[in-house]
Amino acid sequence: MRLIDRVATPVARSHRTLYIGAIAMFTSILVHTPHWVWGVFALLIVVGVKQTLPRRRSVRSAIALPLVLTALSLYGVASNFAHEPLALVAWALGAGALLAGSLATGAWRGVRWSASGRCLVVPGSFIPLVLFIVIFIVKFGVGIVLATDPAMGGDAGFASVVGLIYGAFSGTFLGRGVAMWRVAYEALHHEAASSPL
């Protein structure tokens, strides 16, 4: 047997063993995931798919979703990293940066006010659907890490990275809510200014 074969065979076996072990671990995680988690994922998909279609929304409902998602995100950081204040600082930085960025770039253009319907007309977009899926994957991954190694909840680096990511998602959705509120506010303000006394 050649030297290369003597070295390559054990290496190939170790890679195969690692691969099989990773599949077994991933399968175990999926099997032991509570059923309600998949229900939440399905709900996020349904809400995300609805966001791909143009629709009419009241100002209240347009602002409610970003506020709820932001509150859940902040709660997730505070509850998972209660003893790591850097996580909240990172969350605030991520939220502030993406909120400012989305407003400065006009990322949520296309929303308009319907004076006859007294509502917002929101164009369809795949961005919320993609964000919902990515948020679920990130939260699922963080849950796995914290379940398998609870000490990571006290790791400043891990907590800060997760806080920053959660904050970035929150800032993106807040930017959308603020953009919609701004369209409604400006339209209603213009209507009030132009209406006869």
TrEMBL record:
Signal peptide: none annotated. It comes from the Bacteria. The chain crosses the membrane at residues 20-49, 61-82, 88-108, 120-146, 158-179. InterPro entries: DUF6622 (IPR046730). Keywords: Membrane, Transmembrane, Transmembrane helix. The keyword tRNA processing does not apply. Pfam families: DUF6622 (PF20327). This is DUF1453 domain-containing protein. It comes from Pararobbsia silviterrae.
